[in-house]
Amino acid sequence: MSLFLLSALGLFLSPVLVASECSLACSYSNCTTTPALASECLLNPPYNKTWADSTLDVLTQSLENFGFGPIYHNTGPPYSIQLDLLSSLSALSSSTPDSDFEFQEEIQAILTSLLDAHTRYRKPNCYSATWALPIAVNYTAPPASSDFPLSEEPAAFLSPSTYTDEYAALYPDIDFEASLGKQIQYLNGVEVTTEIASWGDSHETRSNNPGARFNAALRSYFYRPATTTNLLPFSSVETLSITFTDGTTISLPWMVFYGEGLGDPNACLLDPPDTVSITARPPSFAHQLLDDSPPQVLHAPSLTKDRSDRTVIIDPEETTTTLSCFTQSLPGSATATAAGVKNVLVMKVASFSPPQQPYADAWAAFLGDAATCLGEEYDMVVVDVMQNGGGYVCLGWRLLEMLIEEFNLDHEKVQMRYDLPHSSLMSAFVDAVNYPDPYDNPGDVEQILNPETQLPYNTGEEWYYPGRNATAGGVTSLRSNWFTLNCKEAEDLPTADFKPSKFVGKDKLVILTDGTCGSTCASFTKIPQEAELATFVGAGGLVDQVLDVSSFAGGFVCNPGYLQHIANMTGVTFPAFLTNQAWQFGWAAWYSERLPSRPVQFTEQEPHYRTPFWAFPHPSVPADTTTAAVSSLYDSVIDDNVERLAAANPGDCPSPSPAKKQDGGWRTFGITVFVCFILAACGIGAFFAWTKYQERQQMKGGPLLSGLLDET
């Protein structure tokens, strides 16, 4: 019997723990209670030294084997993250907290400090409870007539969340609805933007970029799952005090959603696996965020309500994939004519992880939807990747090849350089098994290629040895040879020979991001950005700080289950969790083409333009409200880009030929004069478009939001 099988069986032969003393009971998934009662339940499971030691063993050996020390010793600018993870974890081994929850909070705080959504920790299931409020914050840009320019600060207003009914039932005597629509000045006595940004800096793992982190914190501040968010001290999640600009204040106690098993130690234990799957290879993660909630789907009726200029091609609420689109026709104005734009294709890519299985079916469905969208008639494309948490890398690459002619003609231009750290476990795996991929199953989607030959490796030794020395933060470590991913399977699907109705130039391909677009989505944005083949528009962020186009741009993720698997194949031991927490971590590193010595996640590359938008979709906010806001955002992004195009293309008036008086010469001359008149009108339209554009951008905050930013 294998070492892995013996150790796994040992875990599940342990006796069941004593019954829970938590007083809360729930027979369905969304019961509600007060923070005081929920907090008592979270503290109910006592500190268990055996559980804690197994958790620390798994985390420590994973970190030791996959190069976190050198990477995070000092990341250098622009973020300069300096951590000693192993020392921090080691210190916990000698601590004796009163409850397991307090221990779990310490673990989560250490891993949150990485500011990397790839490396995310989720507490065991017995802590499944979410703190929520009936309100959200809606940031808006000041109107054009305001004396409060955006370059200083947008205004924050109180808006309802999706939990108003549940809150009213739990707290019938609290009238929060009377305050909806008021402008907020302070949260808990701190200026509203400062409070949300500060909370995001210490709790939000979506990004190491402060602006992108703020965009994520706008929603997570009011929606805090205990399994993925640090809650201690509990006094910080009892009541939220809100002060408005009119001087009034309201105090709202938090509401807690919970389900069956809250605070029950038995609900923390791993479920016994069936005997068939215990030695089977765990499935690989798609390369995406381990998230608290799925992306909110846009509400199609809100996109097209009273909009005869829009035609939905793939309905976001009906598609079986994560891609939807519509076309938008523009009126025949002088500005649109000068810009050369009649129709715009708007594509929403919610993630690169469509739900179908097996993965080949997911790929085919996703790319088929993309082909349907790109088969429409259009002159400009807007691709919305806001809040996209990633997915299959090959789908991101293949979509770039379908959008950009240069990538379509040469698939190697979308390939990225990766490497993996040398470690005792990986060296033992390569020496013993010698598979030509980091993953042992040839059917996996994460197969690799030799970037020099464009062929798969024959052995593991070819990609792993002799390796290369890499220095990060003053620490030199040995890493594998360069490799890239093998996406030929995606390129050979039925869409292999697809060509869009039109390849648009970089000034007419607009990628809209909020900076939280991560993992595979980061490759989808960074690759064309570094190649200067698209125009990038950044939404929201902190007005006085840089907004990166993407986040957590690591190579791909791994998990302890796979490490146990390769250890088992190699004949060595690797520890296992005793409880049902989840942890994934960035594994391979992906390197920037623009800054080739640096992993991409430690670079900061700004969008060309910024737009004042903070009404991001989230399950805690009504879908029709946020979709209406996103709908207006699309109009703004389209109008701004059309105005830029018109301003850059006033047109030239052709000179009439004086010699053509016979054979229809006067008719030709008349046509020429007419064309000249039209082009002159276009030129005048372009001039006014440019003037209007400058005025709008001044209203939006001047150069900060309108200028083409220095990308060095």
From TrEMBL:
InterPro entries: ClpP/crotonase-like_dom_sf (IPR029045), S41A_metabolite_peptidase (IPR052766). Residues 1-19 form the signal peptide. The chain crosses the membrane at residues 666-690. Keywords: Membrane, Signal, Transmembrane, Transmembrane helix. It comes from the Eukaryota. The keyword Transport does not apply. The keyword Nucleus does not apply. This is Tail specific protease domain-containing protein.
